[in-house]
Amino acid sequence: MTEYPFKKKVLTIALICLFIFLNVQPANAALRQGEEVPNYVRSDITGFDFHDQDLSKSSIAGAVARDANFSGVDLHGTVLTLSDLKGSNLQGINLADTLSDRVNFQKTDLRNAVLTNMIAAGSSFAGARIEGADFTYAVLDSDDQKNLCKIAEGINPTTGVSTRESLECASQGNTYKPAMPDR
C-alpha cells in the first residue's frame, strides 16, 4: 500500500518535467510571425472577463485571478501553477493537459469543465461546483479526490463522461489514480 503514493509522486514529477519539455519548447517553435501566446505570469487579473477566448498554451502561473470570468475559455495546455482563481467562473472551461499544481480553485464554478489529464497536485477545490466536470486521468491529491466524490454528479456535455466516473469514485479504496490510460 505504501508503494502507491511513492509511485504517484514519481509519476507526477515525471509528468511535470515532460509537460514543461513538450509544451514550452514546441509552443514557441510553432508560432508564426506576428502571433503571440498570452502571458499573464504573476499578473493581477482579478475580475477580468475572458469569456469564450482562446488562451490555449498560455501561461497564467503565479497570477491572482479571483472572481474572473473564464467561462467557455480554452486553456488547454496552459501553465497555471501557483495561481489564485478563488471565486472565478470556470464554467465550461477546457483545462485539459494543464499544469495546475498548487492552484486555489476554492469556490470556483467548474460546472461542465473539461479537466482531463490535468496535473492538480497540491491544489484546493474546497467549495467548488463540479456538476458535469470531467476529471478523467487528472492527477489530484487523494483527499481532494475523496471530497470531490462526495459532491460529484452530472455528465459532461462535451465528453459524455460522468463526473463520478471520471473521479473514479467507485474505487475509493484505491488511492492511486494513474495519470495516463493503459494502452
Largest sheet: none
Provide the structure class. mainly alpha
Mean pLDDT: 84
Helix/strand order, N-terminal first: HHH
Uncertain spans, ≥5 residues at pLDDT below 50? 20-32, 174-181
Q: Determine Rg (CA atoms, Å).
A: 16 Å
**Principal-axes shape call:** globular
DSSP helix count?
Answer: 3
- How many runs of DSSP E, i.e. beta strands? 0
Share of helical residues: 10-25%
Beginning-to-end CA distance, first to last residue: 24 Å
Strand content: under 5%
Q: Short summary of the structure?
A:
With 183 residues, the protein is mostly helical.
What do you see in this structure?
There is one protein chain. This protein is 22% helix and 0% strand. It has helices at residues 3-29, 142-151, 163-166. The protein is globular, with a radius of gyration of 16 Å.
Overview features:
disordered C terminus; mainly alpha; 3 helices; 183 residues
Question: What is the secondary structure topology, with strand pairs?
Answer:
Elements: H1 3-29, H2 142-151, H3 163-166
